[in-house]
Amino acid sequence: MNIDELKNTWNEDIMEETPEISIEQRNKLNLPLEKIRKNMRVEFWWVIGIFVFAFLVCSVCRPFKLQLYITVLIASMLIVTVFFFSKFFKLYNDISNPAPKTYDSLKDLVMQLNLNKQYYLSYYISFAPFLVCEILIVLEFIPWPKPLSELKIAVILIGSVIGGLFLLYLAGKFWFHRYYGRYMQHIENLLEELKR
């Protein structure tokens, strides 16, 4: 076998392994990708609005100690949010490019979407310590008609943390599925269709 035959055989093998995505399939892919991009933009602006509102509320809190605690807590939340949104922004840029043209590039896109799903759920779970701190601040600074016993404080704290974590988890799952998961499922179905 000479070199030209070997090159031809190699090229044929590569072509068989990475089929092209047809124009019709690319059009099917563009709609869910555009929906994901749109939802990412909307979520980004909502988060900016929430943080601006939170810092404005902090500026009117009194006494100073409460204002300081809440400001530090929100600034810490902002740092965590910036970290995760930098990951989401990378995905946003990747899916802003034209739709993938080959099976392998579509497979890579699905892998990136699944990785970002894990980032997204981690983002919600990362707010658990902030929830605990918020509850501690509320328990410390809210004036109660009569002082709370240690048992009441423990019950309120543990109950709030368990309930809050459960709500965070449910909210994260619901939000992700509603705004991203169903479109990711559509893309994964297209990948399965191409596999056949």
UniProtKB/TrEMBL annotation:
It comes from the Bacteria. Keywords: Membrane, Plasmid, Transmembrane, Transmembrane helix. The chain crosses the membrane at residues 44-61, 68-89, 121-142, 154-176. This is Uncharacterized protein. The lineage of its organism: Bacteria, Pseudomonadati, Bacteroidota, Flavobacteriia, Flavobacteriales.
